[in-house]
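Escalation from tier 1.

The customer reports that the assembly of three entities below gives different structure tokens on two consecutive runs. Tier 1 could not reproduce it. I'm attaching the input and our single run for tier 2 to review.
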Amino acid sequence: MNMDQQNPFVRVQYLSKSYVQRHPLTNAKFIVHAFDGVNLTINRGTTLALVGESGAGKSSLARCLALLERPAKGELWFDGLNLAAFGNNQLSVMRRQVQLIFQDSASSLNPRMTAAEIIAEPLVIQKEGTKAEQRQRALALMEEAGLPREWETKLPHEFSGGQRQRLAIARALTLRPKLLILDESLSNLDIASQDQILKLLSSLQKEHSLTYLHISHDLRFVSQFADEIAVMHEGKIIDKEPAAELFTQPKDAYTEELLAAMPTLETICAERFD
Amino acid sequence: MKLLSRRLLHAVLLLLAISFLSFALLQLAPGDYFDEMRLNPQISAQTIEGIRAQYGLDRSLPVRYAFWLFSVLQGKLGFSLSSGMPVGPLLWVRARNTLLLTSTATFLAWALALPIGIWNATKKGKWTDRVTSLATSTLLTIPELLIFLCLLLVAARTGWFPSGGMISPGADGLNALGKAKDLACHLLLPAAGLAMVMMPALIRHIRAAMIEALESPFVRAARGHGIPRVRILFRYALPVAANPLISLAGLSVATLLSASLLVEMILSWPGLGALMVEAILARDVYVVIGVVMLSSMFLIAGNLFADLLLFASDPRIRVE
Amino acid sequence: MPAHPKLLEVRDLGVEYRSSGGIPHTAVENVSFDIGPGEVLGLMGESGCGKTTLALSLLGLLPGDCTQVSGSVLFQGQELLSLRERAFQKIRGAGIAMMNQEPGISLSPVLRVGDQVAEVIHAHRDWTWKRCRAEAESIISRVGLPGTARIFSAYPHQLSGGQLQRLALAQALACDPELLIADEPTAALDALSQAEFLDLLEELKAHSRISVLLVSHTPEIQASLADRLIVMKDGRIVEQGSFIQLYRSPSDPYTRAMLRREGDGRETGSAAREFVGQGGRA
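Tier 1 run:
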């Protein structure tokens, strides 16, 4: 793992976003700062985990990085290209390179479309390939994601939670993106399914040189696979280190607090039973 | 408060736009009030032109519009060409009659639909639910016209109810109670008919909203705490089901002036709808515009009312 | 009633889902276990293994028209499965109480949370509404929610996940039940709130005689609280026993996977995990 290699695929500088809400009757404005002054780099082919409590601004940041929303301030660099100057057309081309996978697969997948249709949908929208080619690609992606080809006509509700996330991952890979953002995607799954999906993600990362941004509230969970971890608190990044360093020498009091809140199984058992 | 005044301003602007549009469209429509008169060889063209000048109908559109606006501010809303009287008072009488009919019918419809809808939601799938479902489907597919005609038939054949009109001839001589009874007799059939038209859709909406509320996780959680069924129904399910229903109720208010056109025609209820039809047929422009304006006002007010009700009832919409 | 040696005795419990015209699906099969007074029994298994169905069946909350429940559930010596709805209502909330996974959707969005706690009390005690509210206030402060006046009159959407979870606990404890069923109580919480909530549950365990059926797929949670453990898979019990025994020497490979033990007894995970846990809990 060559982390000194200065090969950032994503670079974010001083990114800020706030939402303006208005009272329905009095029309009074109040501003919610989603995140402020965020600096991040994600190196190519690595996994960055973004950890923070709910409401810390992680999902807003994810949506900005997925180019679904524009930040209020700051710069975003993808693959060496400064996106601040991009117009809408150029941005849509860039959007193919980043895919977002959500936490709740049941509500992010169209319940009326079959598995193959869901996976092929990006191709249909981008008008790539004939119907037969699209179907073939969908089937190939299903196999890669570990789903049997025969399930192409199944609807999302017939899948289990873990299988649905596999489906979401397969769809995300359709347009051959370079960056995958997983927003709490594994939080709703049990341990066994989590392990399986993590293995799948790991092999996909090696095979396609993917870069991952993994968003989670569970520091213990991301410790299994993250190369680097960034801790977010109240809209700011307060700590960002390679994973091993974060756990042994946390730089911030909040990080220490988080670590203290999550002892290992062994520690708990030792405390309780010995 | 600021938003409320904004909405009111929007409403006024909207009404102005509607009035101007109606004016212009009526102008574009072929013919005018005096067409029949022109057919009569005994009335000379000059006489007709004279009358027209008297009503200011020979002026250009913007001028006539301006005059009409002025008249609105005076409360007269222009003149009826058929009767020569100001439109305002005429509208008021007819509107009152319509409102009496439609509010009674709406109240009746809701008063029956609520318990039926709620009851069927709790007994979903059982035979009472299925029977009601069948009944509502049937009522929905029967054309309103048929329902009113049937009622008229019942009235005519059995003589239990008056077959039209709002008051019996000679009712002026009765005392207050007598007048009220007479009115009620006349009101019953048209109100019942209108209620029958409104009920099926209402029952379905109420039932659907209640079912959704009863199947939500917090109702299940409340059951899990041992809270009795009836209390869950009224304290937990109904308030949440009320949201879509309140919007519906607001919309009911909005259509209070427009829903009764057909029944007024068939059962001869002297209301706004009947007035409008007569005016259109006679090309009585100012009356038509007056009716359109009044109905629009109700629609806008009804929507605003629905929004306010929703705001008051759902704490999630209020932002601290 | 004399205190029964076993609070809950479940024998050969089975639950079958029958959809009209569909194939019957066995959600729970042949499940037998006991819970004693003051004991915490952990229930572990992956999603779809029947944990929640089991919990719901203990309270008679499964939809009657499409489920078939068989077996025996004795609560304080009384058979629950043959109870009529009215009798069951008396037990729910007062004898056996349940806490759901997502507190946000388990509370009515249009009622103030204080009133919702008071409702539970009102359903089981013959008190005036005022007295129920007062009692609700005291329970809410007992679960560690400060500033009770403000929280009492708040609506669910105004509170955080951690606060809502405490309120759900308050609702469950409102009428002093003997058995608390906690269904994934910390799944919707972030790390810090989780730790706080676990502290709360530990306190509860230490200071009251309440028994808990703790449903959670997270081994760390079970390790902190469970005295005994049941591991379920596909509706059946795979293994059960005291927690420490299952942890130190699991006999079934599935149990091993659930408790993060690899074949040679080491904990699974990458090298980075070795560094986690240098600090004990605060």
